[in-house]
Design brief:
Elements (H helix, E strand, L loop, with lengths): L6 E6 L4 H16 L6 H21 L4 E5 L2 E6 L2 E6 L3 E10 L6 E9 L4 E3 L10 H8 L3
Antiparallel strand pairs: 1-2, 2-3, 3-4, 5-6, 6-7
Helix pairs in contact: 1-2
Length: 140
Amino acid sequence: MNDFGELLYAGKTDSNKNGFAFILVGIICFVGANFIYAKMMLMVIGGVFALVGLYLLLFKRSDKFSIYENAIVLTIKGQELSIPKEQISRIEYQKVKVRRSPVVSYYPILILNNENKVFINKAFNSIINQDFKKVIESYL
């Protein structure tokens, strides 16, 4: 990896948060089932949420990516994809505004010289991932 230059940023994409949330809701349903009359129904619902969360954590793992001085390396489903800096013509940002939230998040999209687009599933905004924002905005 030394031929890529100095490591500027290393991270994972944003897909693990959903798995943790489903497992947490499942645990809350299991605990809450002890305090209501219809215990079995809430325990089944909690079990379904916990299983969905485990599925997301085990099989839909987040992908890794690294930003080096001379390349961006994406690890997607065990396959490593390196994009040299010379092949990137520009970086665009996909704007995502969550309903009832004043904060707007942005996802970077790499536009290559042959007009192919590579989406990086790592959001940044004025609150989260400020170090990622600095690196990706100053990359080209």
